[in-house]
Amino acid sequence: MLSEFLQGSTMWGVGLTLAAFAAGTLINRVTKKSVCNPLLLGSLVVVAVLTALRIPYAQYKASAAPVSWLLLPATVSLAVPLYEKWEILRRNAKAILAGIAAGTLTSLASVLLIGWAMGLDHTQFVTLLPKSVTTAISMDVSAELGGIASLTGAVVILTGIVGSLFGEGLFRLLRITDPMAKGVAMGTAAHAIGTSRALEMGETEGAMSGLSIAVAGIMTAILAPVFVGLL
Q1: How many domains, in total, are found in the chain?
Q2: Is there a single domain that holds both residue 128 and residue 183?
Q3: Distance of alpha carbon 66 from its chain centroid, rounded?
Q4: Which of 5, 85, 174, 189 could form a disulfide with 207 if both were Cys (CB 3.0 to 4.6 A apart)?
Q5: 141: exposed, middle or buried (Cβ count in 10 Å: 0-12, 13-18, 19+)
Q6: How far is CA 77 from CA 80, 84, 211, in A?
Q7: pLDDT confidence of 2, banded at 50, 70, 90?
Q8: Interval 119-145: pLDDT, tens
Q9: Which of 153-167, 174-188, 192-206 has the largest mean confidence?
């Protein structure tokens, strides 16, 4: 009966999404463990509920659509810290853009190598290709090129969580201390989830990461068809 009630409700997906994220946030605050990422835990809660109640993902996706609509304005809002650090951006524009370009090419090339090594077919390759850009861009790129957009979204979230968890440790290991370099790396490799972590690291890191999301997204949209032709 609960399953039938939920499926008959228009906005139940929104409620489930918010409740799952709130539960993940609470667990993260209680445990204070970086591995207990609220987005990861929230996703697991949603998967568990849908599986237990045998609710098709398509129905959940339609019901939770209003949450997805917030992705674009949330991404645009990242321009605020960038505006506050405009002078730093202006002075270091060439180096920043070069770093974003290098990160974008590395991301696309790594998926290409994986495709060659594992013998991925066109659909599988395209699904993985835009893994390092925000879902607002990656899912559209994947769908346009013939990939599975919903699976791309899951891969993008996983990529962001991994970058958020291990990015700062990798900086320490490689002795990277420059805040601009950290921000560019986090935004280019781990999109919005990495940017949320970069904002915790510092204002400059957050601003550069926010810029990297937009530029890397544009570069990926332009270069992805080229890499598809190389598989």
Answers
A1: 2
A2: yes
A3: 18
A4: 85
A5: buried
A6: 6, 12, 11
A7: low
A8: 888 898 999 999 988 887 888 888 888
A9: 174-188
The rounded distance, in Å, linking the Cα atoms of 116 and 104 is: 19
| Domain shared by 199 and 116, yes or no | yes
pTM of this prediction?
A: 0.75
Of 38, 69, 100, which residue is a domain's last? 69
Domain boundary among 12, 40, 69: 69
Beta-carbon-side half-sphere exposure of residue 135 (alpha carbons within 13 Å): 21
Continuous H helices in 70-148: 71-76, 79-84, 86-91, 93-118, 122-128, 135-145
Spatial separation of the C-alpha atoms in residues 89 and 207, rounded to whole Å: 9
Q: Which two tokens stand for residue 3?
A: 């399953």
131 and 48 in a single domain? The answer is: no
Look-up of token digits 């957009």: 149
